[in-house]
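Review form for a predicted model. The reviewer records the input and the model, then writes brief findings.
Reviewer: anonymous (R2)
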Amino acid sequence: MKRELFEMQVNLIIPVTLKQWASNRCMCNSLTSQVLIEQIASAFANVERWDGVTLHQAIALDSYASDKAVAAARLQDTDTHWTEIQRVTLVDFESALSFMDEQGTRYYLPAFIAVFCRMRYGQNNREQGFEPLVCTSQEPETLYDCRVRRTH
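Model under review:
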C-alpha cells in the first residue's frame, strides 16, 4: 500500500508539473517554481520517514560503513518533516538518494525537488552537482523532449 501511494504521488505530480514547466517560456520562472513547490508540499504533506534510511545513513552506506556506524549516522538526522531539512544539507548530500530505501526516498524526494526548483544556474560551486539540471539557454520544450527521449 505504501509503495502504491508513493508511486501514485510521483506519477501524478512529477509528469504533470514537468509538462506544465516545459510549456513555460522560461524554466527558471520563480512563479512556476513556487507553484510546483506548493503542489509538492501539498502532495507530500503527511509523508513521514518512519524507519527509512536517512541522509547520513545513506552516506555511511555509500562509504561501506559498519552496521554500528550506519546506526550512529542515523542519530545525526533529527528532522521530523522533510520541510525542516536545510537546503545546504541537501546540496551536500545530493548523492544520498542512490543509497536510500523506499521510505527514505519517499521522505527526501520532495525536499530535493523543492531545492532543485529554488536553485539558479551557477549559484555557487557547492551546487555544481545540480547545474546540468537547472536552467540552460535551451528552450524548455527541447529540454523536456530530451528527457522524454532518454527514458524510452
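Findings: The helical segments are 2-23, 30-43, 55-62, 67-74, 87-92, 102-118, 140-151.
Further findings: The two ends are 28 Å apart (CA to CA).
Recommendation: see findings above.
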